[in-house]
């Protein structure tokens, strides 16, 4: 029987260790923090991206995203423009400098993932883990507030 508490502990701590390792490498090689990198990746991936879209994609608050976008914009890596479909929101897009930085940072990010994941675990195991993690995340989203109504408290 798998010790779910130990699995939880290992999963959470590995996520923090991985986040910190990626953050250290991005800061060292690109002068970019991982929080900005994650936001910039979403902006680049979603045409017509709004702050709400970033918040939804990353699972964080609109207020938190707005503050990060403000900082990325102040650094001139992104810009906001009027949303032609909704005057209450803005479209966020990367600047040329933001696109260049994101391209460089993506190479660094991929290299760190290869060191931390690809060189440690077999391709097959990573594929199985990706499928399992996808199922767990989908189940969590289906539960809405995180509570399983079929479970007794």
Description of the molecule:
This protein is mostly helical. The protein is 67% helix and 7% strand. It has 6 helices and 2 strands. The chain has helices at 4-30, 34-45, 51-58, 62-74, 96-118, 123-142, and strands at residues 78-82, 90-94. The protein has a two-stranded antiparallel sheet with strand order 1-2. Helix 2 crosses helix 3 (51-58) and helix 2 packs across helix 5. The longest helix is centred in the first third of the chain and has 27 residues, at 4-30. The protein is globular and about 55 Å long. The two termini are 21 Å apart. Residues 146-153 have low confidence and may be disordered.
- Count up the helices: 6
Q: Main sheet?
A: 2 strands, antiparallel
Terminal CA distance reads 21 Å
Structural class from helices and strands?
A: mainly alpha
Number of strands: 2
Question: What Rg do the Cα atoms give?
Answer: 18 Å
Order of helices and strands: HHHHEEHH
Q: State the share of residues found in helices, binned by percent.
A: 55-70%
Q: What share of the residues does DSSP label as strand, in percent?
A: 5-15%
Low-confidence stretches: 146-153
- Rounded mean pLDDT is 93
3D shape: globular
As laid out across the biggest beta sheet, the strand order is 1-2
């Amino acid at each position: 029987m798998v010790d779910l508490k130990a699995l939880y502990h290992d999963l959470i701590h590995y996520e923090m260790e991985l986040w910190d390792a990626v953050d250290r490498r991005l800061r060292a090689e690109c002068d970019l923090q991982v929080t900005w990198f994650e936001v910039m990746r979403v902006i680049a991936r979603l045409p017509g991206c709004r702050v709400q879209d970033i918040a939804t994609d990353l699972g964080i608050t609109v207020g938190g995203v707005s503050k990060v976008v403000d900082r990325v914009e102040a650094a001139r890596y992104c810009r906001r423009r009027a949303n032609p479909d909704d005057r209450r929101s803005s479209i966020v897009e990367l600047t040329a400098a933001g696109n260049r930085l994101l391209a460089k940072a993506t190479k660094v990010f991929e290299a760190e993932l290869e060191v931390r994941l690809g060189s440690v675990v077999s391709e097959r195991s990573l594929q199985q883990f990706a499928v399992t993690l996808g199922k767990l995340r989908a189940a969590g989203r289906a539960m809405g507030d995180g509570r399983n109504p079929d479970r007794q408290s």
